[in-house]
Amino acid sequence: MRLGIIGTGRIGSTLARILVAADHEVVLANSRGPRSIGPLLAELGPAASAAHPAEAADRSELLVLMVPFDGVRGLLPQDAVRDSVIVDATNAFSGPGAPRELGGRGSSELVAEWYPGARIVKSLNTMHFETLAVAGTEPGREGSQRLAHFVAGDDGKAKEIVAGVLTDLGFAPVDTGPLHSGGILQQPGGPLFNRSLTEAQALAWISH
Predict the structure, then answer these.
(1) What share of the chain is helix, strand, coil (3-state, %, to 5)?
(2) First vs last C-alpha separation in the chain
(3) CA angle 155-137-197, nearest 5°?
(4) DSSP secondary structure string, 87-147?
(5) How far apart are CA 49 and CA 26, in angstroms?
(6) pLDDT bracket for residue 144 (50, 70, 90)
(7) Using an 8 Å Cβ cutoff, are 30 and 36 in contact?
(8) What is the mean pLDDT of residues 27-39?
(9) How is residue 149 annotated by DSSP?
(10) In whole angstroms, what is the distance from residue 19 CA to residue 170 CA?
(11) What pLDDT shows up at residue 93?
(12) How far is CA 130 from CA 88, 121, 126, 206, in A?
C-alpha cells in the first residue's frame, strides 16, 4: 500500500521507517516543502518520495496526519480528501502535556467536520515514537503479547484498512468504537492515551 504521511517530525519519520521496513511505500509531506525531506528520503530509499500535502493526499491510498492539531484545519483542500481514508494521529493540547478542553467533543470529530466526506479513523496517536520504532518487531511480542494500537471511527471498512496496516507493522489493532466515544478514550486526558498495553490487556480493558 502507498501511504501518505503529513508531518515529518520524530513520530512521522518513525512511522515512515517502519512502514518502509514492512514493504509499504510512503509519500511524505510537511509544512516546509519537499526539499526539507531530502535527508529522510536518502535514508528510506526508493520506497519513499516527497510531495506537498495536497499532492501526498492525491497520491496515497491512506493518509496519516501527524502534524500539530492546530495545523490540521485548512491543511488540505476538502475536495482532495473527500472519500479518502485519513488516520487522525494528532493530539489536541492547550499547553505542555495539558489536554485541550473541547466541550465534551473528540478532537477527531472536529477533524471530520473540517473535512466532510473523508473517512476519519483515530489511531497512531497514543504511543511514544521510541516505542513505535521498535515494539512491532521486538522479540517476544507475538500473539496476545503484541502491543495494541487503538482504532476509532464510524466507517467500519476504513477501520479494517487501518487495522491491516497496524497488523503489518507487528501491532494488534484494538477497536475502541465510534469516532466520538472511541476517540475520546484515545486522546489526551483519555484513559488510553500514552499507555502501552498488550493486546490481551487492551481487550480486557475494553470489555470491563
Answers:
(1) 40, 20, 35
(2) 35
(3) 60
(4) EE----EEETTEEPP-TT--HHHHHHHHSTT-EEEE-S-SS-HHHHHHGGG-TT--GGGSB
(5) 7
(6) confident
(7) yes
(8) 95
(9) E
(10) 11
(11) 95
(12) 19, 23, 12, 25
Confidence class for position 207, pLDDT limits 50, 70, 90: confident
Closest CA to 117 of 151, 158, 178: 158
For residue 56, what is its C-alpha cell? 501526498
DSSP 3-state of 172: strand
Residue type, 29: A
- The DSSP call for residue 191 is T
Cβ 47 vs Cβ 74: under 8 Å = no
Does residue 101 contact residue 95 with C-beta atoms inside 8 Å?
no
Please report the pLDDT score of residue 97 as a whole number.
81
Quote the CA–CA distance of 191 and 13 in Å, as a whole number. Answer: 26
State the cell numbers at 49: 518520495
pLDDT of residue 56: 96
Q: Indicate the length of the chain as a whole number.
A: 208
Copy the grid coordinates of residue 94.
492547550
